[in-house]
Design goal:
4 copies of one chain form a homotetramer. By secondary structure, chain A is of the alpha/beta class. The first copy, chain A, contains 12 helices and 20 strands. In chain A, strand 8, helix 9 (248-261) and strand 9 form a beta-alpha-beta unit. Chains in contact: A-B, A-D, B-C, C-D. At the A-D interface, helix 4 of A face helix 4 and strand 5 of D. Chains A, B, C, D: Pfam families: Melibiase_2, Melibiase_C.
């Protein structure tokens, strides 16, 4: 079955990174999954993703010096494949890996995802560890010059060796056995090297080889626009910025990124605006906080992500979600766009404001998003001719966040938008 | 009326540059227009475009030293607006400009286009010439630091002055009076400067202001992919490469360009693969020749341009067209794709071959183009699953150049393609 | 006679730019020359240099919009050679050029210099003006693509044409007739183009051809270190930074530049730290002010320029010099280094301090400069071994600004230096 | 004692790399040392340097795949310090290291050098090995992101940790015990990173700390001209090109490098033109050959290296030296320049020829080198005025390679130079 047909709408879920950094454990993952099943699942949220260094012992214990402790103990099987750290994921003991946790999540009606780093563990190369079904050993497929700038765990592989594909196949076979539905592969997206291209292809082939459908998500950004065709062919989502956090300049900058990538949104292949830093964040980083975004900024973020059709991944600790945030994440009309905003395009953008427009994939209705990027309350006006509808006369405009309805009276529509805020209209 | 709705299919026409360089005259333009009206018009060919330096005296007479003679006499009116060189365009005498020539072409049922350089003539600035309906003079709006790398005629304008927009308005008013339908603006497309953005917008506003619809075509390439949204908003076509000539490596390279721009083809806004260097070329450059492209390469070029939906502009001297070339340019089935290839995308590309696929905008038929980029005859095979059709079984494949029809038998289709050649199939 | 032997010590003088910008006139130049002859000459100050656009009419009258009014009237002779603007330099009337002013300055026992821009006036090219002793005209030697980024007056020349050398010869013949002793050529120093190399060589040949010795000074900076050999061969001084002004970060940065260029100081060829922005500055820029440098910073500047052996060019309006500044500029012991600091080298530099050391060219004495680059008073210590003298024991250290004398007692010498200040010792 | 005073003339010696690559063994080193002692020592040749990977087992055995076998066995002591591979250096067994070999070489009246890579062995970091006199372990000082592009053995150190300096101290203590006189440190010279600066300083401090004088030689090139002051302060020699081999374009290019660095030659600090690829070369690379350089090219190389005062390191297998090569390497008059060419400077250089000139440090004689860089026999002429001597009249010119003597007759001297050849004159 075609890869893209599996993912006709952008993936929605939760990711452990923004709150836990490297420290998340099994109990915490389950608690978030429980919350999702109970409160979010019915709105389309379904992926539960364990982010970076689930294989690492003592993760987060030297946070003053390192985000990732170099040269440290990792859980690894005899075939150079990383396994969950048993200290944090006790159900993984005795070689069970993530299967018990994945089973738990599947029973909740949800899907399970993990983060991996491109390549093979450095320690496997230095110790000449075995590879599954191969006469070669890890040192023979590891490329000693291919490292990640910011994480010390892996070597890239020698992309011309079939045993390197074999290694990727061997880890995806394991993930398939566990029941993994989503792979976020890191250190693979923003580099301008032929070998990065090749390792993306190897991941794709390993997923096909294992037989279990898995979303392939590439990090970190910013992805390279000149590689767009390649991402679209081999991956399902790819990050269009570096790590996104609760800081207004980063959100404002996302409009520039979405301008760049707007033509590249398609079924099964999604430019990714990164996780939503809402609710409580940062505990694993040593600075637990409630999001720095104002409510208006969160409305702006949700509006942009949904009309653009970015994947939606929650960064918040779900068990601490407040009512306002939960409501914001479960606005059915807004989330409808995530699946059904078609041909979304930026109509205009300057330093003060941005306007986006799209059609519904099924109905004869249009969507219009008005964003105030300035630091003052602002009237934003738009001429219907710019939108390829002739006039607003006789049209109804329903705003999805406030539920207010306005009648179009002339060719021009104008409305007040709050500081850093947004309005999202259905026009019919 | 919306700009893009005017140009629902890529413009098709003839341009004087490839054969005449800067030297074309009125008689020659008319002869080419006559030929087009008689032999090509019924197939959709309609624009007749006079390329660079129609205002320059003695153009081409110092070709050993200069392509563009610097600091030389140009025809210019009292308001700093360039007019056709009367030596070469005698009907333009007495301030009639290109109106008589445009009338002639319109009477043939064709459309008329001209090339311009961004900015205002240097000589107007140095002589403090007047501007239409303005108290300012040319020196006040000319930017002495904004020049073209390769042509000495113009200064860019001071983009923050409204009189600069006024100057652009004044020249487009003149072009509208003449009856110009197509503007190819040069020295504006490949630069990564805010002022280039601004001058593109000024051209757009000047077209809107003059009230006559005109195709806005931007040169030279390669256009910048990060400016795609801006080109799409303000122009109708923009060059995706530097000047394209009859040299195989340039044609092979176009596949890389089309990969990059494939998502950006839309009604009224077309990435432009540049003129078709077929037939007789190069006389004005001092090296008249029959195209260096083999027939196979020309088939490859036409197939790529049409499935991708590039504008088609003929570089050949039309009065010297041979039968083979004329037939190639008037293959109705192939040209049908130019208007009706929808969602065209590259399926694969490597050093040896490329495959493209699209749907028809109206019928339930598909198009498949197989390109042999290698230097050997090659069997190219394709799995239907890669094309989002399930199988070739029971399907009919009609090749548009040979008119041969094959029956699909399995999930895979394989066929032999000649060196540097292409096959273009309709699948139904 | 060898070029470099003429200038065995770095040139010292005054330049009109820092105070007058483009506006200086004959009376003002004379007033500054008079002051120099009376108060500064005996200390070695001798050049009086008229900086940019002495040929331009209305210079400075549109300062809100332009530093250099584009496309404006200039004084020019029939052979495309710029002459002084008669409005500002009345003695130049009737084709006398700068000869009367140069004579005046020479009679004071001083030397006369002018600023020129690389190339030929744009207006000469556009008007096809004549060239001295040539059948060619200005348009034939002007390069329409070679312009200055920041000044609109000139086109560079076609460096492969002997008539271009002829044009440079013709202007230097004129300058020789006038009695010019110093040429500051602008728009020629920081560019990484083969043609910049060639125009420097043309200037050199034109000086040789005219027969009158002239210092050749190149601007603007920063000069390119990889071109050092070329500057040394063809010029006498070249700017190692962009324009230098009375702003501490620029002065602090000069230490980095001097580190880079320290090995390239030699008789007749001097890396140039640019003019000394002391006293009153900025009138022509519309912001007349007393220098923003503190006294300590000025001591630092003079100490660095002198031990490094930069040319010394005063930016101040001399007629307004206060006693402190005049004393600082006429410290004979400090100025002695300008001529006699040999093998000066940076001993150390970090963000807080810098140390320089040199020998005297004639006596067995050493110079030691200690600079406090930090924002606090600071004890600076230095081990004699770092200086290639074995110990300070028994040595006398005389500080040249305070005239205080200290006795060295150990291998280490330590002294307190004020914020942004310097001490300069003679060790004997 | 001052570092630079130890090395008043450029080091001369032999290096194992060009012939043996990574494979050299004790017997081979001794044979070359024996030859040097017998045939070369009296002419100043004295260093015997064991190049890269003397610590590696099986070095060179996988030459089809790797120059440096990654993740392979190395000889290492308990404190993370590499030791010689006992297989190749049997006298190093039982922890004796290079002491027996160094003793052997010292007894011949020669000096002993080794190559090292910047940093600490990767295997030490992964195995948490101990550090001498420290509570920290190797993993704590290794920087997992600091690797060499082309060699897989080491990690750079965390330059802000004093234990990192401690590690460098510990290895240099060992080298001092062994009797090492020369350290060629690799992967440290051409990078534009603050940490590279810091590791150079650490090497310098480690040499000072160990108390034994050692030449500090930095590789690979090209060194950065903007770092010249830093190299001069902390090192004795640094490579000004990437690896130099017996290929004319590389030799021709060296003239450009020497132009750039000519002002930076000083006692104890030498820009390094790299090893002399003469005689038999390349065995360890699998392509043993007699040098590709013609005799004329070798004369050119020796002349340039000597007048410029580059260190001289022989790449040849000494035991196979032929008479011509031996004679070329032992021309006393030419080698005299290596020590006594003062103020050497390029007089001119273009694509066809180059001229260098210098004075003797002690006598009132001058040196003049004429190089024919073209592919034809060429008369090269030089005007005495360009050389700061007034005339050749009455002067004697002795050519050092041919021993021929000419009398100067006029201001100009002209002589024929063979293709790619050189002449080197003493003028007195």
């Amino acid at each position: 079955m075609n890869r893209n047909e599996l993912y006709q709408t952008p993936p929605m879920g939760w990711n452990s990174y923004d709150y836990y950094d490297t420290t998340v454990n099994e109990e915490q993952v389950k608690a978030n999954a429980d919350y999702m099943a109970k409160n979010l699942k019915e709105f389309g949220w379904e992926y539960v993703v364990v982010d970076i260094e689930w294989y690492a012992y003592d993760a987060g214990t030297q946070r003053d010096k390192y985000q990732y402790i170099p040269f440290w103990k990792v859980e690894i099987d005899e075939y150079s494949r990383l396994l969950p750290c048993v200290d944090r994921f006790p159900s993984s003991a005795d070689g069970r890996g993530f299967k018990p946790l994945a089973d738990y999540i599947h029973e909740l009606g949800l899907k399970f995802g993990i983060h991996i780093m491109r390549g093979i563990p450095r320690i496997a190369a230095h110790n000449h560890m075995k590879l599954l079904d191969s006469d070669k050993t890890a040192n023979e497929i590891a490329n000693p010059s291919s490292i990640c700038d910011w994480n010390p765990d892996m070597y890239g592989v020698n992309v011309d060796m079939e045993e390197a594909q074999g290694y990727y196949n061997s880890i995806f076979e394991l993930y398939a056995e566990w029941g993994v539905d989503f792979i976020k592969c890191d250190d693979i997206c923003r580099y301008d090297q032929p070998s990065a291209r090749r390792e993306i292809e190897m991941l794709h082939h390993a997923i096909e080889h294992c037989g279990r459908p898995m979303v392939l998500s590439l990090s970190p950004g910013p992805a390279l626009i000149k590689e767009a065709w390649h991402y679209e062919k081999y991956a399902n989502m790819w990050r269009i910025t570096d790590d996104f956090w609760d800081h207004w300049p980063l959100l404002k900058n996302m409009f520039e990124r979405c301008e760049l990538w707007q033509k590249h949104v398609a079924e099964g292949s999604y430019p990714d605006c990164d996780m939503l830093p809402m609710g409580y964040l940062g505990k694993g980083f040593g600075e637990e906080r409630y999001t720095n975004f104002t409510k208006e900024e969160q409305i702006t973020m949700m509006t942009l992500w949904c009309i653009f059709r970015s994947p939606l991944m929650l960064g918040a600790e779900l068990t601490k979600l407040d009512d306002w945030t939960l409501n914001t994440l479960t606005n059915k009309e807004v989330l409808h766009l995530l699946a059904h905003s078609y041909g979304a395009k930026q109509v205009m953008r300057d330093e003060e404001q941005a306007i986006w427009f799209s059609k519904d994939t099924k109905e004869e209705v249009y969507y219009l998003a008005l964003f105030n990027l300035s630091d003052d309350i602002r009237n934003i006006s738009i001429d219907a001719k710019e939108l390829e509808i002739n006039s607003f006369k006789g049209k109804q405009l329903k705003e999805f966040w406030s539920k207010e309805i306005e009648k179009g009276l002339t060719d021009i529509f104008e409305t007040e938008v709050s500081v850093h805020g947004a309005k999202l209209f259905k026009i019919c």
